[in-house]
Amino acid sequence: MDHVWVDQVTELSGLPPDRARYLMCMLACYPLALVFSLILAPSRAGATVRHLFQLGVGLAFCVFCFKYQVFLLLLDTGVCYLLLLFSPARLVHLTVFWWAIIFMSVSHVYRMYTDYNGYTLDFTGPTMIITMKVTSLACSLYDGTYKKEEELNNDQKILAIRRVPSVIEYLSYTFCFTSILSGPTFNLQDYCKFIDGTDAVEGKPKPSGILPSLLKLLTAVFFISWTFVFPADWEPFFDEEWRNSHSFLYVAGYMYFICFITRCNYYFAWILADSVSNLSGFGFNGYDEKGSAKWDKITNVFPSKTECSSSLKVLVENWNVGTALWLRRVCYERSVYSPTVMTYLLSATWHGFYPGYYGCFMSCAFFILTSRKLRRYVRPKFLGSTGLKMFYDALTTVCSLLLINFASIQLCLLSFERNYELYRYFYCLPHLICLFLYIFCPSPPRPKKE
């Protein structure tokens, strides 16, 4: 019967079967989230029941989408749990990290072998999400059981835990049905507060997540509609006759527009997952200064800030927010050598082993290092008047979008051959310009230490 449903959705939507299964699960999340928030509310059901519901539905989704590959997900999470239990406190973050990264890497290699240059949805997607969750959990356990409190920063003090969660808590956390297919990731403390019903602001009842969920659903539909009107097609760029028949600016504009269309798919998936989470009651983040409820605790993307940022750093921080936080907490804050480069190297490895991933994230690292140096030297010269500052902000917004789009195109093209064509056509101009600026831009004097 499942195959009949999948065939019908495939025929109606025009989606391939793997994406049809994903879409069916995401739509099924809405009635299930309502059941969870209303019938299984904390006032009506205990934490164990709520954990089991999350786990059961999450596993059912994985079986429906990935069939026997669900056993690989259980193997991954099972080994990580044993490592959490039996690894020495001083090594627990390392043992879990390396197992999760190696398992995920093997999954990426398998996917490349079976579907090279393809975008088929398989178990590697949930594996990437589980990797973020279990490594974050291991770091929190390491901070809470081994490191001294004075060695922790404020964020680490809040996230530190002093015991391994129970099997049900752990599996519910890793297989949470609203996030197992497309994220976002989140920390165990926030998740357990949501399950226990202790995530409300003291003295106030927790507001309903129905309205913010509906607004995010409409936003998700807005972005996915772009992909139906303008399907993302990279193939014309690799047709030399097509390139020769159009100007350089037209080809560049076409590539950048297709990159935006590709981002719309991610906007759709992440905003839809955020919408479902809010409907289930997860994501409440207190109130703003006007007294309005905020539902952005686990929001994974802010499209307006991503598309209109005047800083590469701010742009990156508002794209795939959960992953950016994970990279900061697990890698950037713990690296002893070149945190920026190591963080982008881990980001590339997390995505997979296509050359385009490494070209993308190493380019991002280089662009950000250059923009930091340039910003420290140039920005003070434009703060003398409002007009100059507006000009500076407009210029840096355009430059940020141009650079991040060029880097993102490499991620979309995946293979070495296709990325070579990209570099050859654009003469490596973004990298050469940034290299020139990095070498010849004077370093601003650092303030003297007392």
Describe the structure.
The protein is mostly helical and 450 residues long. Helices cover 69% and strands 0% of the residues. The longest helix is centred in the middle third of the chain and has 33 residues, at 248-280. The protein is globular, with a radius of gyration of 23 Å. 37% of the residues are buried.
Write the topology of this structure.
Blueprint: H1 2-13, H2 17-39, H3 47-66, H4 70-86, H5 92-114, H6 124-145, H7 154-159, H8 167-174, H9 188-196, H10 210-229, H11 240-244, H12 248-280, H13 303-307, H14 312-317, H15 321-332, H16 339-351, H17 355-378, H18 386-413, H19 416-426, H20 429-440
What is the compact description of this entry?
69% of the residues lie in helices and 0% in strands. With 450 residues, the protein is mostly helical.
Features:
mainly alpha, 450 residues, 20 helices
Q: Based on DSSP secondary structure assignment, what is the total number of beta strands?
A: 0
Question: Gap between N and C termini, in Å?
Answer: 74 Å
In angstroms, what is the radius of gyration? Answer: 23 Å
What structural class do the secondary elements suggest?
A: mainly alpha
Name the shape in a single word. globular
**Helical segment tally?**
20
> Strand portion, in percent?
under 5%
Question: Which percent range fits the helix content?
Answer: 55-70%
